[in-house]
């Protein structure tokens, strides 16, 4: 998933970004409400965030106001509030302002990952924790991939590419979209990295798993046998 | 030594009742004596009257029976109202020709006596009035036993005293009630203070307190306000510190978890290094909170501040910046003249070091420490050429735990600490120009200290 992390604390931000990257997410980290507004709300449709992890106590404004502004503009990006404010009233206000989930610091990285997966499921309209496309089954929680009865061993990046393709099965995903899903702003990308990941996925899953639409991108073809 | 508590109420009651009783006794004595004198006069007048009445009867009897000496019937004398009055009628020869029933046998006075005399006879003392009637050639003694007189006087005094005693009781009760009522606001005031929950330092209601007690009430409320202020300071600091520590602790936890989840040595090493950095930061923050708490508790005697060499403090603060990783990229200029200032040698260096660290964190290329004196007041300024601060940031920068944007690393206590130090010295702190139109400066202004009382040691140090 591509995530926007809004956290003003340098240390906590570093740790959260590192933890989220370990889970294979692409993380953009902003440290103020103003930056978050630019990256998320002002960018509108161009901002392809799958979820926002939002701190409420920001130096230049409340994260809650930011969230309300986004919802007013009908920006439906799932928002997970991660804050030190632990009062019941704060939680209710946060959820009612349009947050999808609310976590109180200290935050366990595994729990955060699970909640993000849950948010992803809700957005995709799935109840099942595994994603099945044809005979390919992906379990994001255990990071395991099966083709038929065959377990497939994927790296974090390869899994991320597969999940990005699986988000809309049968729909072509462009190179730019894949780069966006895989890399945060601050990460450097090798020019042929995406091709390498696709190549590896085909090798591991079988060449028929992914269709190449030359010049357009790729799509997960797990529907065919 | 603890002085035994005395009660205003009982003291007032006893003093007032005591004063009333003394006044009542004094007035009773005076009344008793004056009524005694009055009754004496009345009794004497009665004696004179009785004497003349007896004389009138004697004269009549003598006219009708001039020869019947010694057998005079004095039926006309009214004995009913003169029970306690005795009389003797003596002939010209001095014999007692008649005496009233119960009158003594001995003559009450000398034969030719006239007027009042106190006579001591075997059966008691008498007040005697003698009337000599020359024409009738008789002498009449009218007497009243003094015992009767004093008994009558005592009766009169008792009649006087009894209602007085009742009055005194009523008065005591009244005094007690009045004292109770008058002191009720005081007792209520004490009760109101007594009944408060610990930590409740809202002002006590002063309505109903008499004018004499209002200063006490106001003083109590002022004390409450001061206690409240100190408590609030401490409570906010504690609450804020606890709240603000959550974030670094959360960061430590997350960082540790990143290290645990790391798949290779490099990743783990990076996470562990970040973890150590976080521990250092949390430690710094706790230290700052502690320093601030100590400064809050510390009060300095502004008249007894030692002279400290400002240029030395400034140099030390600048020196402490050298350890910072940013130091090599920044030029640190110190322009402080040799200046002895009256300041707290513990807190002023902390404040200056904080300002220098702030400036270094934000400076682009330069940090400048300056000082100047003006009419005895000393202004110390630390300037940088960084991005400066917005009006909103300036407005809140001295608040505790306020962190400006991009200030993720600090606790937001540095400037609050600087302000506290300035306030302790009776000075103030504010923003000033940065360097060459860029950045920002912070100035501490220490007020002029009246040096007359420290003149000698001050000049020795300058």
Notes on the structure:
The complex is a heterodimer of chains A (about 220) and B (about 450). Chain A is α/β, with parallel strands linked by helices and about 220 residues long. Chain A folds into two domains: about 1-125, Response regulator (Rossmann fold); about 130-220, Orthogonal Bundle (Arc Repressor Mutant, subunit A), CATH 1.10.10. Chain A has eight helices and 13 strands. Chain A has helices at about 10-20, 35-40, 65-70, 90-95, 110-125, 155-165, 175-180, 195-205; strands at about 1-5, 25-30, 50-55, 55-60, 60, 80-85, 100-105, 130-135, 135-140, 145, 150, 210-215, 215-220. In chain A, a hairpin with a 3-residue loop joins strand 12 and strand 13. The radius of gyration of chain A is 18 Å and the shape is globular. The relative contact order of chain A is 0.12. With about 450 residues, chain B is an alpha+beta fold. Chain B has three domains: about 10-160, PAS domain (Beta-Lactamase), CATH 3.30.450; about 215-295, Helix Hairpins, CATH 1.10.287; about 300-460, Histidine kinase-like ATPase, C-terminal domain (Heat Shock Protein 90), CATH 3.30.565. Chain B is built from nine helices and twelve strands. Chain B has helices at about 10-65, 145-195, 215-260, 265-295, 310-320, 345-360, 390-395, 415-425, 455-460; strands spanning about 85-90, 95-100, 115-120, 125-135, 140-145, 305-310, 330-335, 340, 365-375, 375-385, 430, 440-445. In chain B, the strands form three sheets. In chain B, strands 2-1-5-4-3 form a five-stranded antiparallel β-sheet. In chain B, strands 7-9-10-12-11 form a five-stranded mixed β-sheet. Chain B has a two-stranded antiparallel sheet with strand order 6-8. In chain B, a hairpin with an 8-residue loop joins strand 11 and strand 12 (about 440-445). In chain B, helix 1 (about 10-65) runs antiparallel to helix 2 (about 145-195) and helix 5 (about 310-320) packs across helix 6 (about 345-360). Residues about 450-460 of chain B have low confidence and may be disordered. The chains are: A alpha/beta (about 220), B alpha+beta (about 450). The interface of A and B includes residues 18, 22, 31, 60 and 105 of A.
């Amino acid at each position: 998933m591509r995530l926007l992390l809004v956290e003003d604390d340098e240390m906590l931000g570093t740790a959260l970004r590192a933890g989220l990257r370990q889970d294979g997410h692409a993380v953009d980290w902003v440290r103020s409400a103003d930056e978050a507004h630019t990256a998320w709300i002002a960018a509108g449709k161009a901002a392809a965030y799958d979820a926002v992890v939002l701190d409420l106590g920001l130096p230049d404004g409340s994260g809650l106001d930011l969230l309300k502004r986004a919802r007013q503009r009908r920006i439906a990006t799932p928002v997970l509030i991660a804050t030190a404010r632990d009062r019941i009233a704060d939680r209710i206000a946060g959820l009612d302002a349009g947050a999808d989930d609310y976590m109180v610091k200290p935050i366990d990285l595994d729990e955060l990952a699970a909640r993000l997966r849950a948010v992803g499921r809700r957005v995709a309209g799935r109840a099942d924790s595994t994603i099945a496309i044809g005979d390919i089954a992906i379990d994001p929680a255990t990071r395991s991939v099966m083709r038929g009865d065959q377990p497939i061993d994927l790296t974090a990046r390869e899994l991320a590419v597969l999940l990005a393709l699986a988000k809309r099965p049968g729909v072509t995903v462009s190179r730019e979209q894949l780069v966006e899903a895989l890399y945060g702003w601050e990460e450097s990308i090798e020019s042929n990295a995406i091709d390498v990941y696709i190549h590896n996925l085909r090798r591991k899953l079988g060449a028929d798993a992914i269709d190449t639409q030359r010049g357009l991108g790729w799509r997960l073809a797990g529907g065919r046998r | 030594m603890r002085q035994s508590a005395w009660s205003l109420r009982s003291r007032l009651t006893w003093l007032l009742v005591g004063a009333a009783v003394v006044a009542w006794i004094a007035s009773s004595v005076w009344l008793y004596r004056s009524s005694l004198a009055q009754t004496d006069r009345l009794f004497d007048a009665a004696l004179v009257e009785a004497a003349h009445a007896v004389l009138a009867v004697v004269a009549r009897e003598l006219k009708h029976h001039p020869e019947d000496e010694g057998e005079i019937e004095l039926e006309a004398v009214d004995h009913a109202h003169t029970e306690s009055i005795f009389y003797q009628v003596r002939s010209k020869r001095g014999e007692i020709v008649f005496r009233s029933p119960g009158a003594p046998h001995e003559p009450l006075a000398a034969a030719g006596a006239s007027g009042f005399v106190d006579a001591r006879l075997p059966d008691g003392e008498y007040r005697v009035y003698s009337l000599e009637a020359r024409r009738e050639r008789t002498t009449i003694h009218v007497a009243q036993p003094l015992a009767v007189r004093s008994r009558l006087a005592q009766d009169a005094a008792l009649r006087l005293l009894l209602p007085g005693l009742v009055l005194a009781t009523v008065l005591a009760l009244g005094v007690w009630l009045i004292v109770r009522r008058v002191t009720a606001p005081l007792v209520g005031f004490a009760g109101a203070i007594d009944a408060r929950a610990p930590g409740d330092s809202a002002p006590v209601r002063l309505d109903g307190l008499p004018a004499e007690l209002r200063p006490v009430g106001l003083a109590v409320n002022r004390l409450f306000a001061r206690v409240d202020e100190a408590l609030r300071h401490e409570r906010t600091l504690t609450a804020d510190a606890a709240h603000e520590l959550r974030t670094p602790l959360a960061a430590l936890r997350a960082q540790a978890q990143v290290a645990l989840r790391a798949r290779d040595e490099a990743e783990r090493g990076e996470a562990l290094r970040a973890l150590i950095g976080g521990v250092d930061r949390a430690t710094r923050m706790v230290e700052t909170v502690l320093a601030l708490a100590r400064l809050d508790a510390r009060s300095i005697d502004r008249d007894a501040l030692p002279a400290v060499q400002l240029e030395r403090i400034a140099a030390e603060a600048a020196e402490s910046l050298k350890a910072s990783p940013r130091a090599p990229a920044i030029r640190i200029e110190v322009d402080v003249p040799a200046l002895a200032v009256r300041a707290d040698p513990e807190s002023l260096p902390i404040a200056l070091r904080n300002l220098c660290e702030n400036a270094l964190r934000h400076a682009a290329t330069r940090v400048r420490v300056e000082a100047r004196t003006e009419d005895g007041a000393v202004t110390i300024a630390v300037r940088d050429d960084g991005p400066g601060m917005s009006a909103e940031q300036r407005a809140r920068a001295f608040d505790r735990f306020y962190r400006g944007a991009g200030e993720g690393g600090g606790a937001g206590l540095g400037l609050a600490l600087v302000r506290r130090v300035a306030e302790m010295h009776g000075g103030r702190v504010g923003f000033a120009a940065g360097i060459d139109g860029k950045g920002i400066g912070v100035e501490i202004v220490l007020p002029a200290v009246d040096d007359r009382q420290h003149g000698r040691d001050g000049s020795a140090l300058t």
